[in-house]
Amino acid sequence: MTVRITREEKPGARARLRLEGRLVAEGAALLERECSSLLRSRGAVSLDLAGVNFVDRAGVDVLGRLSRAGVEICCRSGPVASVLEGEGIRVTRDADDAADGRP
């Protein structure tokens, strides 16, 4: 399965996209287009990567560009978060991590 993107919008709140699966080339390009559109219309976007189990080079590149554009990247501790942080992408830890005492 490639990435599945679910859009969640609440009035007055940051637009949130939940991702599930594998963030690879085609899905990464789709994600970038969707986030760019949301940034223009809403001004604030958050990505929930808790359901993502793999990110390829194209996905890392897109997430880096989106992070620099102001998109919040939320992720649980684990391999995906480690890869993103290793690439210098700021990751906001999932609330479940804080409750479990994980950094």
The N- to C-terminal Cα distance equals 29 Å
What is the percentage of strand-forming residues? 25-35%
Residues in helices, as a percent range = 40-55%
Architecture, according to CATH? 2-Layer Sandwich
| Overall number of domains | 1
Give the overall shape: globular
Largest sheet: 5 strands, mixed
Helix-strand string: EEHEHEHEH
Q: How many helices does DSSP assign?
A: 4
Low-confidence parts: 97-103
CATH topology, which one?
Answer: Transcription Regulator spoIIAA
Question: What does this molecule look like?
Answer:
With 103 residues, this protein is α/β, with parallel strands linked by helices. The chain contains 4 helices and 5 strands. It has helices spanning 25-42, 57-68, 79-86, 95-100, and strands spanning 4-8, 15-23, 45-55, 72-75, 92-93. α1 (25-42) links the parallel β2 and β3 (45-55). The radius of gyration is 13 Å and the shape is globular.
